Each structure stands twice: as C-alpha cells, then as structure tokens.
Here is the input.
Amino acid sequence: MSEETMPAAEVADRNNYELAFHVLPTVAEGEVSGVFDTIKSLITTNGGELVDEESPERFELAYEVVKHIDTKNRKFSSAYFGWVRFSSEAVAIEAVNLGMDENPNVLRYMVTKLTKAEEADAFRFHEALASEKVMTVDVEAPKVAEVKEDSEAKAEETVAEEKTEETKVEETKE
Here is the structure.
C-alpha cells in the first residue's frame, strides 16, 4: 500500500472571506481607487488570493458614524463603500485586521467568513442600489396627535375588555 503526501501549501486550510469597508468621504474621489488598491495589496501580501470585488462608490449612510481623527471626534453621514472577497488562511486575518486598523483613510470595516451559499452568490450593493432593489426606509417620529389618538384608542379597548371581564364574573356569581 502506497502513501500519498500532499504538498504543505495544499494541506493548509484556506477559507473564503469578505472584507467590506467604508472609505472616509474626505478622501478625494480620484484617490479612492488608490486606497482600494492598498486594501487589496494588504490582502495579497498576507497570503490572500483575491476572488471578487466591488469598487468603492460614495453613498449616504443610514446614520452618522463618529470617528476619532486628530484628537477630535468627527461625524460622517456619507462614505465610499466597497468590498473584496478573498481566500486565505485563518491566521492571516489578524494581519489584515491590523492593517485595516492602521489605515487612516478607512472609516470602518468588517471581515466575514463566508458560508458556501454566500460564496456562490455575491450581493452587488451598488448594482442593486442603482436598480432600486435595495429598500430604503424613512423613519420619522410619530406626530403627537397620532400618539394621543393611539393611546385613547388603546384606553377604550382596555375599558371594554375590563367590562367584558366584569360581566363574565357577575354571570359566574349568579
């Protein structure tokens, strides 16, 4: 019986990941591609192999994000959003996280290990946004009159329920 051995590079477990990120809106539009190239370079220099990507494009954030820059907290309501999918060994993710933390042009980021279903079908945010497949929701506080009407209606329902309960109790006593 012969024994086969695998080369060390093939034995190592490689997983698929997605790095989603926001680039600060203060970065000039022409320089965003350079920041994107730096992020991709960070992945490849740490042993990652690029699989898919969506270039960063500017859009309005759902809420303001605060980032501490040069001794001040700054609020941002827009950013450039993009993502990169890559395969890598799990030990390299720490170095990718460290590099992203040190990048002064990144507002925030997230590295996610992909499931088999996610690997098969990448969601293209900017394409979906352009074709209006992404649902946006306007959240506004209810008006005082609506709140008052709702509380009065609930109070009337509660009184009616209490009367029904009282009637049931009286019928049981008789």
